[in-house]
Amino acid sequence: MSRAKSPSPAAVERLPILTILRLALPKLGVAYLFTLLLSVFNRVMINELHIAATLIGGLYFAYRIMNIFQVYVGRYSDRRMLFGLRRTPVVAGGLMLAALSLVPLPYLAVAYSQQPNVIYVALMLLCMLGFGFGFAANGDAQNTLIAEMTEGKKNRPAVVATVWLFQIVFIVISGIASSIILQIADTQAGAPPSCTTAECAAIRSRVAVEMMPKFFLASPLVSLVGLLPLIGVERRVRVDETQPVVARLQLDARQAYARIFSNSQARVFFFFVVMAIFALFLQDSILEPFGADVFKLAPRQTAQFQPIMGVGTIVAMMITGALASWKPIPKRTIADFGLLIAAFGFALLTFAAFTLLTPTLYVGVAILGVGMGVFNVGALSMMMDMTVPGEAGSLMGAWGMAQALSNGFAQFAGGMLRDIGIQVTGSAPIAYAVTFVISIVSAFVAINLVARVNVEVFRKMTREEVQMVLAAEA
User: Fold this and answer.
1) What distance in Å separates the CA atoms of residue 15 and residue 135, rounded to the nearest whole number?
2) Which of 15, 128, 346, 460 is most exposed, with minimal Cβ within 10 Å?
3) Of all residues in the chain, what percent carry a pLDDT higher than 70?
């Protein structure tokens, strides 16, 4: 009688490709929402509806503030489950909440532009807070699920690269689709791409405003389609497996954060994430307005920025993920290299601002995407390494909170610097160039910080300590 073949060591040590793809597909909804906010909403609000970039940046910062709850959400998913699942319900519930919260946003923004009122601002803020909480819960739960499923797997860098690769691919697809839809709508309204008159420019602005609510209405359906393949991926957990964690003394958010930051390695890594994300995303809310203010590009043209950046990110993540899985490259080195490439991209954007060379603008956007792609593979792999069993959700929540809050503050600061710079200097190129230079400086500060982080030292020093200080074992 023949024995059943046991799985080969290689199969055990690597996550199957089909499972990786199913983990990646929920990024469809994430990417669509991301594209709506950063390729449609910010451009239309600032340049078509003439709402202050500082206000738009403030709304972005508001939704990022909700990421202070990531540690709480992570701790909740560590201890609670639904039908034996801890991460999947939070991934799905968070993404759907985020998508539904955005539906009223364009209507409120148009109403505010026609009659500025604090009530409209408050309602937009409420939409962004709901979106922010859902987005934070989704991100923390999905990252934790990936971290748990790749624990001890040799292809963890490749898994991280693939999941984020899919997000960037979906961003590219969403950006291209929105650009094509806008171009078709422009042509039908009497403003074909070949028309460069002021009348055609006005038509394009009107079309962009009219199309925005339709884009947002589709977000819940797109998100649901992306979530369906996730069903059945997560292993169901028995009640007794969560009892040791549930039995620990519950900490409030302030205590949890204080005890996380009592560890010096965790504290330095947290601020590395803050500075790196600030450097990379200071341009996030103003890149499309940069194309409009300095280069006089139409909405359908600035909508191409995200796809161009996305292509650079895709290529970089594919190459970096493959190399990191084939040859053991230190993750810190990967993150450093990504920041250096991004700094070069910002330098090209600064040069383009003064020379008005459109090709340099597009090259700078593409290189910035390459830097982000390389950085993503290194930094996200480091985040997953900087966890301990039993509290992965809490620690991933802390790193995710650092990433999200810094991203939000960067978006707010970018809009504020743009408005103040133009008001003080009277020159859009100077205002944008100053912002890009600040990004370059911040990137080098982040490189200096990560040089002080050692994952092995973190795990050796704190495996028992973190278990205690995060949840104060009973």
Assistant:
1) 26
2) 460
3) 80
Q: Is pTM beyond 0.85 here?
A: no
pLDDT digits (tens, 9 = 90+) for 348-380: 999 999 999 999 999 999 999 999 989 988 887
Q: What is the predicted pLDDT for the residue at 392?
A: 58
Q: Which of 402, 377, 302, 326 is nearest to 155 (CA)?
A: 326
Please, what are the domains in the chain?
Answer: 17-471 (1.20.1250.20)
Contact 105, 258 (CB under 8 A): no
Distance CA 157, CA 179 (A): 32
Q: Distance between CA atoms of 412 and 28, rounded to whole angstroms?
A: 26
The residue written with tokens 């055990």 in the block is 12
* Mean predicted lDDT score pLDDT of the chain: 79
What single string gives the DSSP state of each residue in 147-203? HHHTTT-TTHHHHHHHHHHHHHHHHHHHHHHHHHHHHHHHHHTT--TT--SHHHHHH
Report whether 165 contacts 314 (CB < 8 A): yes
Which residues does 6 contact at the CB level (< 8 Å), separation at least 6?
A: none
DSSP string of 261-315, one letter each residue: TTSHHHHHHHHHHHHHHHHHHTTTTTHHHHHHHHH---HHHHTTHHHHHHHHHHH
Q: Hey, is 319 helix, strand or coil?
A: helix
